[in-house]
Amino acid sequence: MKEVVASAIDGDGRRMFPREWNYDYMDVPIVDPQKQHRPTLTPAQVSEVIKQAESHYRVLYALLAGIGLRIGEALAIKLDPYSEDHTTISSDCKTIHVRKSVRGTKEQKPKTGNALGPSISASLLRPS
């Protein structure tokens, strides 16, 4: 969250929401990255996975890697008009409104409430 808030800048490159974080008040645990299992791929490795994938999976893999959707959230996307009842893509194809996830063959609420927060906007992904 800290990085997201800090990344918001105005047209002059100044931080829009300067914050002083009080970690003691928030009761934030100390995280040692060296002790965490955080498997990640480099951009080159992601590109290679997409390149090697069967053609009908390439867009799915790029979508998952590019915006951080879980596979179940991506599988729940319906090409219907916007609805609060299911996951949709906006008519201009710039926003995905996550409302559901698929597990096995059953549609359900997403794994975490974070998925139900602000919709994922493709405009956030474009480099400035």
Summarize the topology.
Elements: H1 2-7, H2 23-26, H3 43-52, H4 58-67, H5 71-75, E1 88-89, E2 95-97, E3 101-103, E4 106-108, E5 120-121
Antiparallel strand pairs: 1-2, 2-5, 3-4
Helix pairs in contact: 3-4
Question: What does this protein structure show overall?
Answer:
The chain has 128 residues and is α+β, with helices and mostly antiparallel strands. Strands 1-2-5 form a three-stranded antiparallel β-sheet, with no helix packed on it. Strands 3-4 form a two-stranded antiparallel sheet. The chain contains five helices and five strands. Mean pLDDT is 81; it is low at 122-128. The longest helix is centred in the middle third of the chain and has 10 residues, at 43-52. It has helices at 2-7, 23-26, 43-52, 58-67, 71-75; strands at 88-89, 95-97, 101-103, 106-108, 120-121.
Summarize the structure.
The protein has helices at 2-7, 23-26, 43-52, 58-67, 71-75, and strands at residues 88-89, 95-97, 101-103, 106-108, 120-121.
What attributes does this structure have?
128 residues, alpha+beta, three-stranded antiparallel β-sheet, two-stranded antiparallel sheet
Based on CA atoms alone, the radius of gyration comes out at 18 Å
The biggest sheet, with number of strands, parallel, antiparallel or mixed sense and barrel status, is:
3 strands, antiparallel
Q: Distance between the terminal alpha carbons, to the nearest Å?
A: 21 Å
Q: Tally the beta strands.
A: 5
- Find the structural class using helix and strand composition: alpha+beta
Instruction: Give the DSSP E fraction (strand runs of 2 or more residues).
Output: 5-15%
- Compressed to H and E, one letter per element, the order equals HHHHHEEEEE
Helicity range of the residues?
A: 25-40%
Main β-sheet, spatial strand arrangement: 1-2-5
How many distinct helices? Answer: 5
The unreliable regions are: 122-128
Shape descriptor: extended
State mean pLDDT (0 to 100 scale).
81
